[in-house]
């Protein structure tokens, strides 16, 4: 269920409370919630995931992303969360796609090459083509 993008970053569809224990067993030290609250009736709330993460000794941060797209504050928040994490990270949303796209934008903003990011995402089953131009722009700013 956790799709490996790098040795330290994983993306996933909506996680459950039992998945927090699985994340702990996998060495995850930070869970990033990229899903807005009440996006669907069947999702586990961020507060419940945050409480389970805290009980398991896993840090938690919410950076919600709607289907409207990405704002600069979200890219910055994701980059900061990644840079300040102490160990492996699991980011989740409805399908894992928004988490993967935001990860790629955050890494491009730090100077990672879009082609490398695209390959890593593809290996995990995700397509970054919808944010290709944004990755190029963000990487250009980082140089």
UniProtKB/TrEMBL annotation:
<feature type="domain" description="Beta-lactamase hydrolase-like protein phosphatase-like">
    <location>
        <begin position="2"/>
        <end position="109"/>
    </location>
</feature>
<dbReference type="InterPro" id="IPR029021">
    <property type="entry name" value="Prot-tyrosine_phosphatase-like"/>
</dbReference>
<protein>
    <submittedName>
        <fullName>Uncharacterized protein (TIGR01244 family)</fullName>
    </submittedName>
</protein>
<dbReference type="GO" id="GO:0016787">
    <property type="term" value="F:hydrolase activity"/>
</dbReference>
<dbReference type="InterPro" id="IPR005939">
    <property type="entry name" value="BLH_phosphatase-like"/>
</dbReference>
<dbReference type="Pfam" id="PF04273">
    <property type="entry name" value="BLH_phosphatase"/>
</dbReference>
């Amino acid at each position: 269920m956790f799709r490996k993008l790098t040795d330290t970053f994983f993306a996933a569809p909506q996680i459950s409370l039992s998945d927090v224990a699985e994340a702990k067993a996998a060495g995850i030290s930070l869970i990033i919630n990229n899903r807005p609250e009440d996006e669907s009736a069947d999702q586990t709330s961020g507060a419940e995931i945050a409480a389970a993460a805290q009980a398991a000794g896993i840090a938690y941060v919410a950076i919600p992303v709607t289907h409207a797209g990405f704002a600069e504050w979200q890219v910055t928040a994701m980059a900061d969360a990644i840079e300040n994490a102490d160990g492996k990270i699991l980011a989740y949303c409805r399908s894992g796609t928004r988490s993967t796209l935001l990860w790629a934008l955050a890494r491009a903003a730090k100077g990672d090459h879009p082609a490398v990011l695209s390959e890593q995402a593809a290996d995990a089953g995700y397509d970054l083509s919808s944010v290709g131009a944004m990755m190029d722009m963000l990487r250009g700013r980082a140089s």
